[in-house]
Structures are given as C-alpha cells and as structure tokens.
Amino acid sequence: NNMEETNKNKNKYSIIIPTYNERLNIALIVYLIFKHLRDVDFEIIVVDDGSPDGTQEVVKQLQQLYGEDRILLRPRPKKLGLGMNCLHSWFEHASGSFVVIMDADLSHHPKYLPSFIKKQLETGASIVTGTRYVRSGGVHGWNLMRKLTSRGANVLAQTLLWPGVSDLTGSFRLYKKSVLEDVISSCVSKGYVFQMEMIVRACRKGYHIEEVPITFVDRVFGSSKLGGSEIVEYLKGLLYLLITT
C-alpha cells in the first residue's frame, strides 16, 4: 500500500528553489508542493538573488502561512546564478538527508515529487532525475527550434560522454545529501552546464542513478533565461567534460 510506504518513510527532504523575479510563481509552486507531499517531512528553501520584483515579500507571507520552519528564505545580495559556489552555500541550510533542486517557474511540476521519492525508496538510488526523453516524458510549450536545440544538446552529450542517463540537461533531481556534497566537490562549471556536469560526474563515480519520466512545461510567467550565450557555454562545457571525465 503506497500510503503505508509513505508513512514509514522517515526521511526529511530539503527542497531548494533558486529564484530571481518569480513573484508570480513562487506562491503557486509552494502551494503545489504542500498539496503533493502531504505525508512527507520536508522543508522548502527559497534562495533568492535579490529579486527587484518583490519575490522575497511573497515568501515572507508564505512563511506566515506555512511556518518559518517549513519555508526558509535565504536571500543573496545579487544575481549569482547557478553553479558550484551557490550549491555549497545552500547546503548549510538544508537539514534533510535528501535534497531536491527544482526551478521556480513551474517548468518542474511538484506533482512529480512523490514519484521521485517513491523511486528512491524502492531502489535505494543515490540520485533520481526527471527525464523528458523516455516514454511518457515530454516537453510542452516549446517551439520546434527550442526542442531541437535541447534534443540536439542531449544527443551530443550522450554520444560524447556515454553517461547512462537519458536526460543530461534537465535539472529536476533528488539527491542523497551526502552524494550531492561529494559530486559538487568535483564540479567546476557554472550556469547551464553545471547540471550536466553533476550527473556525468555522478555516473563516473559509480553512483546509482534512477530516472522518472516528467513533462517539462515552458515557464508560465516571466521570461526564459536560455539564450545564444548559454548554448555556447553548453558546447564549451561539453568539450571540457569530454576532456576531463
């Protein structure tokens, strides 16, 4: 019985959500996480890069609603983006034995969290990653160019790096905290490439990785942060990983 399994689950999950100008999304994503993780011990850590749009004020209201022990706000002075240094600073705040990292823009739907947790409990995996590229996974709201770019990036990475994971560029993942700390300590990339480096390094280190099909939905509010410079960064990162792993 799934309910019984969940109730026996004594793990705590730290859900880290990096934000920059996500005032319109953050309340909805928090609501959905609470809705889908009713029987799970979790905390939500919002790491905000000094959003000028009032994201932090919304998070403070959510703290009053759900409790400051369940929603932690960790402001940073400016837009520092993703990468190793950020994750290091996030760790200090995570009290769970598992860490989930997800986007604030609803492209990562909280409804998949129970299947991530269930998959980890069933398999004992060190990392569970969401994949768009298997049966019943997919992408909504992308134009053909964006789909081809993402798919091409993924195929290229698969061919060159042989990681044994079908979706390298996705970033919706659940990690054992100890594994995340170990993998991060060997990563050097920043930005878009960072997620790919993490999973490739984890594969090289021999960690047990499982996948769960997800449908990635293009951001509902706000503007996408992927541009031409990110694609160049990605290709440089790919070459770097090819040489160093």
UniProtKB/TrEMBL annotation:
The keyword Transferase applies. Its main location: endoplasmic reticulum. Its EC number is 2.4.1.83. It comes from the Eukaryota. GO terms for biological process: dolichol-linked oligosaccharide biosynthetic process; GPI anchor biosynthetic process; protein O-linked glycosylation via mannose. It is found in: Endoplasmic reticulum. Pathway: Protein modification; protein glycosylation. Keywords: Endoplasmic reticulum, Glycosyltransferase, Transferase. Residues 14-183 form the Glycosyltransferase 2-like domain. Belongs to the glycosyltransferase 2 family. This is Dolichol-phosphate mannosyltransferase subunit 1. It comes from Citrus clementina. The lineage of its organism: Eukaryota, Viridiplantae, Streptophyta, Embryophyta, Tracheophyta.
